[in-house]
C-alpha cells in the first residue's frame, strides 16, 4: 500500500471527508488530495497535523511515509537489496538495544589507557595550583580549544584573532559577525562546563540544552537549545543521522546510557562515547560537534583531566571525521577511542610541561 492509499484509508475509516480533514488539520484540501494520490509527500510538520486530525499514532503515518519514499528512491536502482542491507546496519546501531551496549576494549586500547592513567596521576600530584597559575593555564587552553573547535566547523579566525576577540573585545576586520559570536559563545560555554564541574553537576537534558543554547546564542535564537524538527545531512559524510521524530527517544537513551555507565567505564572512554553518540544522533540543526566536544570535556574535567583539544587543520579534521564514521558505519569504536586517548594524553603532557 502506498502512503497516499494508507492516508485515504485512515480518513475513510474515521468517516471524514477530505474537506473535514482539511479543516481539522489546517492543511489545504488541494494539498491533501495530492498526498492521497501520492503526487506529493507531506513534510514532518504536516505529518504531525494529519496524525492529530485522524487520531492515529504519528509513527504509523511516518512508517508508511518512509516506506513509500524508500520505494521511490530505490525504484530505478539496480541492486536495492544491497542498499537496504547497508542502511539496516546503520539504523541498528542507533535504534536497537545495541546502542546501550559496549564492545570489549581491546588490549592495545587498554595499554594506552594504562599509560594515560600514569600521566593523570602525575597531573593530580601537581595540584593544587596557585590562583595565578590556574588562571593563566585556563586562559591559554580555553583560547586554543575555542580556536580549534570552531575551526573544525569552518570558522576562519586565526588563533591570535580568537584571542583578541574573546580576551580583548576587538573586532577583526574582514571577519563575519557570526565568526565573532562563535568565538565569544564558545568561551562562555567553556566557562559554563567549568562551573558545572565546580558545582558538582552532572550531564542532564537541561545542561546539554543549555550548552547548545550558549553555542548558538545570538546566532540562531529559534534553534538554540532545542532539538531539531527536520531531517539533516552531515556534509561530506556517508552517515545519515536519524529522522527528527526519533531524536527525543534517542536522546533519552543517550542520557540513560550515561547514567548506566558513568560509574563503570573508564572516564576517558565514557567521554569519547558520549561525544560520538551525541554527534551520531545529531539532535540539533547546528552546533552538534561543538556541543559534543564540550560534553566530552565536561566529563574529562569532572574526573580531573584537562581539556582535550581536537585540532582543526585539514589533516586532523579528516582523521576525526574518519574515526567517527568508523563507529557510525561499521560500529568500530577503536579508532575513535584511540584518537581521544591520544588527545587527552597530549593535553596532560602539555599541562605538565607548563607547571
TrEMBL record:
<dbReference type="InterPro" id="IPR010982">
    <property type="entry name" value="Lambda_DNA-bd_dom_sf"/>
</dbReference>
<feature type="binding site">
    <location>
        <begin position="320"/>
        <end position="321"/>
    </location>
    <ligand>
        <name>ATP</name>
    </ligand>
</feature>
<keyword id="KW-0067">ATP-binding</keyword>
<feature type="binding site">
    <location>
        <begin position="286"/>
        <end position="293"/>
    </location>
    <ligand>
        <name>ATP</name>
    </ligand>
</feature>
<keyword id="KW-0238">DNA-binding</keyword>
<dbReference type="InterPro" id="IPR001387">
    <property type="entry name" value="Cro/C1-type_HTH"/>
</dbReference>
<feature type="site" description="Important for autoinhibition of adenylyltransferase activity">
    <location>
        <position position="153"/>
    </location>
</feature>
<keyword id="KW-0547">Nucleotide-binding</keyword>
<dbReference type="GO" id="GO:0005524">
    <property type="term" value="F:ATP binding"/>
</dbReference>
<protein>
    <submittedName>
        <fullName>DNA-binding protein</fullName>
    </submittedName>
</protein>
<feature type="domain" description="HTH cro/C1-type">
    <location>
        <begin position="7"/>
        <end position="61"/>
    </location>
</feature>
<dbReference type="Pfam" id="PF02661">
    <property type="entry name" value="Fic"/>
</dbReference>
<dbReference type="GO" id="GO:0003677">
    <property type="term" value="F:DNA binding"/>
</dbReference>
<feature type="domain" description="Fido">
    <location>
        <begin position="203"/>
        <end position="342"/>
    </location>
</feature>
<dbReference type="Pfam" id="PF01381">
    <property type="entry name" value="HTH_3"/>
</dbReference>
<dbReference type="InterPro" id="IPR040198">
    <property type="entry name" value="Fido_containing"/>
</dbReference>
<dbReference type="InterPro" id="IPR036597">
    <property type="entry name" value="Fido-like_dom_sf"/>
</dbReference>
<feature type="active site">
    <location>
        <position position="282"/>
    </location>
</feature>
<dbReference type="InterPro" id="IPR003812">
    <property type="entry name" value="Fido"/>
</dbReference>
Amino acid at each position: 500500500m502506498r502512503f497516499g492509499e494508507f492516508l485515504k484509508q485512515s480518513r475513510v475509516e474515521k468517516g471524514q471527508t477530505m474537506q473535514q480533514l482539511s479543516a481539522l488539520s489546517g492543511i489545504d484540501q488541494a494539498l491533501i488530495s495530492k498526498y492521497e494520490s501520492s503526487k506529493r509527500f507531506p513534510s514532518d510538520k504536516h505529518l504531525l497535523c494529519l496524525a492529530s486530525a485522524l487520531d492515529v499514532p504519528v509513527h504509523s503515518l511516518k512508517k508508511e511515509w518512509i516506506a513509500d519514499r524508500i520505494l521511490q528512491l530505490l525504484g530505478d536502482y539496480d541492486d536495492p537489496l544491497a542498499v537496504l542491507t547497508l542502511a539496516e546496519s546503520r539504523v541498528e546501531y542507533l535504534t536497537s538495544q545495541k546502542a546501550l551496549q559496549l564492545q570489549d576494549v581491546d588490549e592495545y586500547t587498554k595499554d594506552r589507557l594504562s599509560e594515560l592513567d600514569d600521566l593523570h596521576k602525575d597531573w593530580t600530584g601537581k595540584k593544587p595550583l596557585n590562583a595565578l597559575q590556574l588562571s593563566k593555564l585556563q586562559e591559554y587552553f580555553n583560547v586554543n580549544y575555542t580556536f580549534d573547535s570552531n575551526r573544525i566547523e569552518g570558522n576562519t579566525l586565526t588563533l591570535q584573532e580568537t584571542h583578541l576577540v574573546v580576551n580583548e573585545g576587538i573586532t577583526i576586520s574582514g571577519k563575519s559577525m557570526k565568526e565573532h559570536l562563535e568565538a565569544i559563545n564558545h568561551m562562555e560555554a567553556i566557562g559554563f562546563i567549568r562551573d558545572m564541574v565546580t558545582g558538582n553537576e552532572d550531564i542532564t537534558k537541561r545542561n546539554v540544552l543549555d550548552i547548545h543554547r550558549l553555542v548558538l546564542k545570538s546566532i540562531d535564537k529559534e534553534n538554540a537549545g532545542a532539538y531539531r524538527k527536520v531531517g539533516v545531512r552531515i556534509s561530506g559524510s556517508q552517515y545519515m543521522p536519524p529522522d527528527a521524530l526519533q531524536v527525543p527517544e534517542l536522546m533519552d537513551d543517550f542520557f540513560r546510557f550515561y547514567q548506566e555507565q558513568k560509574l563503570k567505564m573508564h572516564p576517558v572512554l565514557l567521554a569519547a562515547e558520549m561525544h560520538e553518540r551525541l554527534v551520531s544522533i545529531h539532535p540539533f540543526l547546528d552546533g552538534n560537534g561543538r556541543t559534543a566536544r564540550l560534553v566530552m570535556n565536561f566529563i574529562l574535567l569532572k574526573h580531573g583531566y584537562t581539556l582535550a583539544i581536537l585540532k582543526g587543520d585539514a589533516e586532523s579534521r579528516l582523521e576525526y571525521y574518519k574515526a567517527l564514521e568508523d563507529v557510525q558505519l561499521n560500529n568500530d569504536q577503536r579508532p575513535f577511542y584511540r584518537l581521544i586517548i591520544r588527545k587527552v594524553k597530549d593535553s596532560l603532557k602539555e599541562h605538565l610541561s607548563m607547571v
